[in-house]
Structures are given as C-alpha cells and as structure tokens.
Amino acid sequence: MEYFLSEEQKIIKKLAKRISDEYVSKVAIKYDKEGIFPRDILDLLAYTELTGVYIPKEYGGFGGGVMEMCLVVEELSRNCAGVAVSYAATALGAYPIILYGKEEQKKKYLPKIAKGELIAAFALTEADAGSDVSSIKTTAEKKGDYYILNGSKHWITNGGEADVYVVFAVTDKSKGPRGISAFIVEKEYEGFYCGKKEDKMGIRASSTTELIFEDCKVHKENLLGREGTGFIVAMKTFDRTRPGVAAMAVGIAQGAYEHAIRYAKERVQFGQPLSSFQAIQHMLADMYINIEAARAMLYSTCRMIDSGAKDFSKESSACKVFASDVAMKVTTDAVQIMGGNGYVKDYPVEKMMRDAKVTQIFEGANQIQRNIIASEIIKEY
Ligand SMILES: Cc1cc2nc3c(=O)[nH]c(=O)nc-3n(C[C@H](O)[C@H](O)[C@H](O)COP(=O)(O)OP(=O)(O)OC[C@H]3O[C@@H](n4cnc5c(N)ncnc54)[C@H](O)[C@@H]3O)c2cc1C
C-alpha cells in the first residue's frame, strides 16, 4: 500500500530497514536467547543518526516527530522487537524533556540523546502501581536546593543501561495525582541503584529492571516542569509514545507475516505447497488486511500528532490497542502456518509471538486503553 511518506521519511524507513535486515536479523535469536543488550545496534543507529530523528533541530536532532520515531521502531521490530524497544525507550525518556524541559535541561540532554551518546529511560511504574499509576509511593521531599528521593520502581525498560532517567515521585501526598512531580535523574547520582533484572517471556534483548532510590539527592534544577505536574507530564508523553508501541506491533506482525508466506510457499504437504491450500491462503490474506489496517491507523495518528493537534489521546490509545491485538493474532497464525517448526526456536516466529504479547501490556494495558477511548467517545456525543 502507498502511504505517501515524504522523501525524507522514505529515506529514514529504508535506512532503518537496511540496518534491521543486515544487522538486527543476524543477532536477534542470539540476543533473545542470551538476554544481550543491543548496544552495538544502538551504536549503529547513532552512527547513522537515526537516534535523533524525533529530536528538534535546535537540539541537534533531525527535527522529525512521532512518525519518524515510529518508522525506525517499525523496521527494527520486523526482525527484533527487543532491539526496537531499547531504542524506543530512549524516546519515552526523551519526550518528557522535549515537551516539558526547561531550556537548560533541553540543551544539556537532548543533543546527547540525539547523537546516541546518552540512553534514556522512563520510570513511572511501581510494584503496587501499574495500571493505577496515580498511586505511586516513591517520595521526593524538598530539602534546601535538593529533592530527596526514596522508593523503588519496577519494570523499567533500559534499566541499568540508561544514563538518564525521567523519574516520577510524590512531592505532596495530600494532592493525589496533582502531588506527583517528574525529575531527571542521572545514573551516577548518589543513592540511586539498579535492582533485579527481569527474566522476561519476550523482548529479551531489552533490559527491564527495578530501580531503587535511597536518599537519592536530586538538585531542584532537575525538576521537570513545575512541581505537581508529573501526572500530566506522564500522560502527555504516553499520548506521543503509544504509537511507538503500535509501530513495534506492526513491525512484529510484518516480520511474522513475511516468514509465514515464505514458509508456506516452500513447505510441501499432500504433494502441494502449503500456500495452495485455501485455509492457509485465507490466513495470509487476513494477516495482510489486518497489518495494513493497523499501519494505516498508526501513520494517520502520527500525522495527526505531528501536525500540532491538541488532543489525540483517543487516537493514540486506539492505534496501540488495534496494532497490538493484530500483532498477537498475526504471530499466532504465523506459528500455526509453520506447524511444529513455528513452535521451536530455530525459526523466528516463536520469538515474534512472545514479543507480540507485551505490546498488549506495556505503556498501559489494552483494557486501560479501552477505558481511555470509551471516556473520550462518551464525552464527544
Ligand atoms: C517488559 C515491560 C517493560 C516495561 N517498561 C516500563 C517502563 O519503561 N517504564 C514504566 O514506567 N513502566 C514500564 N512497564 C510497566 C507497564 O507499563 C505495566 O506493566 C502496565 O501498565 C500494567 O501494569 P501492571 O503490570 O501492574 O498490571 P496491573 O495494573 O496489575 O493489571 C493487571 C491486569 O488487570 C487489568 N486491569 C487493571 N486495572 C483495570 C481496570 N481498571 N479495568 C480493567 N482492567 C484492569 C490490566 O489491564 C491487566 O490486564 C513495563 C512493563 C513490562 C512488562
């Protein structure tokens, strides 16, 4: 399908595809098996300047937006979503700075993130605060020029690998969500430790860890936005980064679909290739229809966001839900088409099915996205 990308967007997509096919595909199974963080691939993305595609020009980036970020994530995910999420989590950490950073904060962090010299992360979730993020317990108590952070975060992508973390903490317990603030925390700050690394079902090349804050001193200069605006910072960031999860899902689905077609044409049963059986053909046709629908929804959401629209929570959540459900269905069907070979680690679709699952869970589980969409559409009519 023709998506009428600009010439620059086509170049970005083509370059990301090349890196994905020539480099990511070679390491995907090994990195997944051994849980290796893809620093070499991130270095390559930095070398080719793809790390800066969504960073404004005045801070050393290419000056693109959510669309450019998603094109890179989609292409990397065609071969390994674990690699893609390691790249995307830096965008998740960078967007709060792009949106709410003071000029000095932007100048300090964004050019280095654009060059790939800094890896970022976003730390909101806690053990008792997943879907219910407003109930986080990590505290930030102001003492003189510093905030003292205490508590822990769970499930943090790029944990232990990132240089800079956007961390959400409670500055005023009495105010509920309006008492949450966001801080920029650098990896070497005193009292900041990385905890347990999670042993995950999928996206195993990415690092997901606990973070621990024990009297961690963060200078007031590192407060992001105003005190008490952390919940808004998080929600406005998610509006821009949930399409990144959709892009991951579209890429995974596309990768599984391509493997399934090739396999169906080669594998012969009953004297004919699998691709000659109508039951298989219909599965392939449904994969195509669903992937193109998800991609169309993703790209139009990206265009809406990048056009400067004010409110796009509904569209952002909808493309995340649709694409992640498509990825789960397509990868499950790809395993089915490949029969026993789909179910073993020698072929990539087994990994793709495991990788797809998380797209229905993180950046707000799909049930929560449906809650967001429902509340928006009910308000509209
Ligand atoms: C691999 C991975 C990486 C992650 N990376 C990050 C990261 O970088 N930074 C970060 O801050 N967080 C991160 N997360 C956390 C992620 O965003 C949460 O896991 C997610 O929001 C769900 O929270 P939970 O796991 O606590 O599930 P819970 O909130 O316990 O929910 C469990 C189930 O109940 C459902 N549920 C909960 N409440 C409702 C409701 N009101 N109505 C209907 N259903 C409901 C959910 O949809 C879900 O299916 C990551 C998670 C994973 C698995």
TrEMBL record:
Residues 6-117 form the Acyl-CoA dehydrogenase/oxidase N-terminal domain. Residues 228-377 form the Acyl-CoA dehydrogenase/oxidase C-terminal domain. One of its GO terms (molecular function) is flavin adenine dinucleotide binding. Keywords: FAD, Flavoprotein, Oxidoreductase. InterPro entries: Acyl-CoA_DH_CS (IPR006089), Acyl-CoA_Oxase/DH_mid-dom (IPR006091), Acyl-CoA_Oxase/DH_mid-dom_sf (IPR046373), AcylCo_DH-like_C (IPR036250), AcylCo_DH/oxidase_C (IPR009075), AcylCoA_DH/ox_N (IPR013786), AcylCoA_DH/ox_N_sf (IPR037069), AcylCoA_DH/oxidase_NM_dom_sf (IPR009100). Residues 121-216 form the Acyl-CoA oxidase/dehydrogenase middle domain. Belongs to the acyl-CoA dehydrogenase family. This is Acyl-CoA dehydrogenase domain-containing protein.
